[in-house]
Amino acid sequence: MKRLIQYHLTLLLLIQLHMSLPHAMAQNNKTQLAITNAWIRKVPTISTHTAAYFQIKNTSNKNRILVNISSPIAAKIEIHTIEKKNGLSIMQHIDSILIPSHSKVTFKPGGYHIMVFNFDQQWFDQKTVPFTFQFDDGSSFVEHFIWQ
Amino acid sequence: MRIKQIASLLFSLIIITLTLFTNTIHAKELPINTRLGGHFKLPGTLNRPVALNEYEGKVLLLNFGYTTCPDICPMVLSRLSQTLKRLKEDSDQVQVLFISFDHERDTIHKLQQYLAHFNSNIIGFTGTKAELKTVAKQYGAIFAKQQTSVESDVLYAHSDYIYLLDQKNRIRKLYASDHNIDEIVADVRSLLKGQPWWKKLAEMALAE
Ligand SMILES: [Cu+2]
Question: How far is the C-alpha of B201 from the C-alpha of B191, rounded, in Å?
C-alpha cells in the first residue's frame, strides 16, 4: 500500500514536471528578454519609409544576439545604426546586434532604429504593428509597436 | 559753465560704467557666426519664391533635410514643433524653415503635405540642384546619396544641424539634431528680448 502511494506520488510529480517544463521555457524567453517602450513613428502619409524604436533588456546570464526583425507592415526591414562622421549622420545597415547578459540596448531616434522601407499604409488604421524578433539561437517572439 | 562740464563728465562716466557692466554680463550673449549663413531665395511652400529677408524681424530656426528621411528629419521637425509649442504666444515671432536638398523627389506640393503634419506654419524650400548646392555651401550643410539597390529607397547621409538665426538673419547658434529643447527655447527667448534699454542707450551715446 505504502509503495503504491509512493509510486503514484512520483508519477504525479513527473507528470507535473513534464507539464510545467515547456511552459517554463516559453516564459524564459519572455521574462529574460524584455521589450519596453516599443513605438513606430507615425510619419506623414506622403512618407514611404518609417522607423520603429524600443528598449530591450536581457536579464539572463547569456549574451543574446538579435539577428532579424520582420513585420507584415513591410517586405524590407533592416536594423540600422547612425554613424556620425565629420558632421555627417550616416545610416548603416547592421546584420545583428549583441544584447549582452544583464544589460539593455536602446533603439531611439538618431541612433539604433528598425528601418521600415515602403511600408503598407493600411497599417495606419491599426492600433499596433507586430514585429517579430529573431535571435541567433533560433528563438523568436512577437512584440506589438504603437503608432506615435 | 562749470556745472555743465561736470554734468557732462558725470554722464560720460555713467555711460562708460554701464557699458563695461553690460559687456561683462553679456559675455553670455550668443555670438554672431560670421563664417556661415547668408541670403537666399528659393521656391517655397507659399507657392512662390521666398526670400530669407522676408523674415527679418523674426527669430528663425532652420534645418536641412528631405521628406523620405525616416529617422532624423521627422525627429528634428517634431522637436522644432515642440519648441514652437513651448514658446506659446512668443512663437508668433519665430519662424521654422526647412530646406529639402532632395531636388529629384521633393516637390513643393510634397513638402506642403509633409510639413503640415508637424506644424502648419513651417515654411519649406527646395530648388534646382545648383541653387541648393549654393545655399548648402553658405550654411556648411552637407549631403550625399547613400548606395542602395532600389532607386526609390535612396537615402542621404547628411548633416543635421539646427541653425538659430536672429532678427537680422545672422546665425547665432548651431544645435545638434537631438539638442536639449529647453536650451533652444531659452536661446530664442534671449534673442526675442533683445538688448536691455540701458545698453541701447550706452551704444547710442557712444556712437554720437
Ligand atoms: Cu535607417
Answer: 18
